[in-house]
Amino acid sequence: MVRLKKSYDEEIIPQLMEKFGLKNRLAVPRIQKITVSMGVGRATENKSRLEKATKELGLITGQKPKVCRARRSVAGFKLREGNPIGCKTTLRGERMYEFLDRLINIAIPRVRDFRGLSPRAFDGRGNYSMGFNEQIIFPEISIDNVEFQQGMNVTITISGGYDDRSFELLRLFGMPFRKT
Fold first, then answer.
1. pLDDT more than 90, % of the chain
2. What is the mean pLDDT of residues 97-112?
């Protein structure tokens, strides 16, 4: 069993039930999925950028990414409807917990000038989003093979619908939030 999943079942659920006065284990918030996406804006100029971003996202998540296409045309960006402009992966189950473990313990501490994640990045329904400027914070990516730095977005979808409960869940998982 994955380390974070075991910790969630044995330690975090009882703590959250006690803190929020919940009687039922199913009312405790849980992570449903993690979505990792890369928007490759320069993919219209250079097709190889999207291919490399897709390959690197696959290495980071351990799952083949889906190529995302433009929904509408934007003349100012020289973008046509249907052009490939990014990639994303949705993680669930064991892969999700393994990725979260690597994110919290390996990748986030490698961010330059890191002062903690913002505790205000919740969307009002309990989901948390964060962005990174470069993909080289993950150990799967070799710095020597990177031709261009690519940012990425990570969205953690949490059941329950309350920001305070989701914050407490992520804090108990070990997410390094900034002190307010």
1. 42
2. 90
The strands making up 128-132's β-sheet, listed across from edge to edge, are 66-69, 84-91, 31-39, 152-158, 128-132
Q: What is the pLDDT of residues 130-164, one digit of tens each?
A: 998 888 888 888 777 777 788 889 999 999 888 99
**Which residues sit opposite 87 in a β-bridge?**
38, 67
Question: How far is CA 71 from each of CA 48, 82, 142, 143, rounded to the nearest angstrom?
Answer: 21, 6, 33, 33
Homologous superfamily (CATH) for 3-38+87-173: Ribosomal protein L5 (3.30.1440.10)
pLDDT tens digit sequence for 24-36: 999 999 999 999 9
Domain extents for the chain? Answer: 3-38+87-173
Give the tokens for residue 3: 């380390």
Rounded to 5 degrees, what are φ and ψ at 147?
-90, -35
Residue 66's φ and ψ, nearest 5 degrees, are -95, 135
Q: Which residues pair with 64 in a beta bridge?
A: none
Q: Does residue 43 surpass a pLDDT of 80?
A: no
